[in-house]
Amino acid sequence: MKSMIININNNTSCDNHSAFAACFAEFCTIPLDTAKVRLQLQRKILATEGVSLPKYRGLLGTVATIAREEGLAALWKGITAGLHRQFIYGGLRIGLYEPVKTFLVGSDFVGDIPLYQKILAALLTGAMAIVIANPTDLVKVRLQAEGKLPAGVPGRYAGALDAYFTIVRQEGLGALWTGLGPNIARNAIINAAELASYDQVKQTILQIPGFMDSAFHSFCIGSPIDVVKSRMMGDSSYKNTLDCFIKTLKNEGFFAFYKGFLPNFGRLGSWNVIMFLTLEQVKKIVTGQAYYD
């Protein structure tokens, strides 16, 4: 019983550490995420504003356009919902990774845990965490998607909390889980690429070219899913995941699924560097131990 209480306390502490690290990384990198969302929703923006040329071009161009037209603070649109998301999703996916990995191999397992078990554990924790955190992702995307409005025209939502209540009131409680299917697929894949690769590299203290390539490939697979997820969350006209996928492919072609790829890749790369470094330092300060022993 004493051992069980210690394990529960350790897992709770780990959740707190990972949630803090995830929130800090989110705050530092959300401008890149905002640029990604605007690029992914470019077609919708063009149709709405009736502009013939793309409004946003590339990572730096998109960031510059947003800052020039809407002010520097606009790059942090959705930060409140983003912090909600990372506190829940980031805390759960990272905090549950070790206990789920142990559960899969058994508490009596001795030796190095196989890579496929690490990948499976990360897939499961990523999927479980985003099911709970999906409403925060939806609100963040909707707030980020809103560009410059004409003078005197109020925003769609007054803020994150207002967005939650407005969506429920106007669209129903289930609307908070719009885009859940592609969101589960996307976050499970990326979580597996992030956590399993980090775990494996740190455990072996080696750079494994083949594995690192597969992590990049996992991100490439995740990009189309992320575009579909953002569009479903930003535009309620799509019936379901398949409808969004088919319409995007038919109207804009295959490469539409890689809109925002570079800012997304750059954001996730910098996000992970900041998050894991912060997590390691917090763990060392609080417990004197590295995250993965």
UniProtKB/TrEMBL annotation:
<dbReference type="InterPro" id="IPR050391">
    <property type="entry name" value="Mito_Metabolite_Transporter"/>
</dbReference>
<protein>
    <recommendedName>
        <fullName>Uncoupling protein</fullName>
    </recommendedName>
</protein>
<dbReference type="InterPro" id="IPR023395">
    <property type="entry name" value="MCP_dom_sf"/>
</dbReference>
<feature type="repeat" description="Solcar">
    <location>
        <begin position="9"/>
        <end position="103"/>
    </location>
</feature>
<keyword id="KW-0346">Stress response</keyword>
<keyword id="KW-0813">Transport</keyword>
<dbReference type="InterPro" id="IPR018108">
    <property type="entry name" value="MCP_transmembrane"/>
</dbReference>
<dbReference type="Pfam" id="PF00153">
    <property type="entry name" value="Mito_carr"/>
</dbReference>
<feature type="repeat" description="Solcar">
    <location>
        <begin position="113"/>
        <end position="204"/>
    </location>
</feature>
<keyword id="KW-0496">Mitochondrion</keyword>
<feature type="repeat" description="Solcar">
    <location>
        <begin position="209"/>
        <end position="285"/>
    </location>
</feature>
<keyword id="KW-0677">Repeat</keyword>
<comment type="similarity">
    <text>Belongs to the mitochondrial carrier (TC 2.A.29) family.</text>
</comment>
<keyword id="KW-0812">Transmembrane</keyword>
<dbReference type="GO" id="GO:0015171">
    <property type="term" value="F:amino acid transmembrane transporter activity"/>
</dbReference>
<dbReference type="InterPro" id="IPR002067">
    <property type="entry name" value="MCP"/>
</dbReference>
<dbReference type="GO" id="GO:0005743">
    <property type="term" value="C:mitochondrial inner membrane"/>
</dbReference>
<keyword id="KW-0999">Mitochondrion inner membrane</keyword>
<keyword id="KW-0472">Membrane</keyword>
<keyword id="KW-1133">Transmembrane helix</keyword>
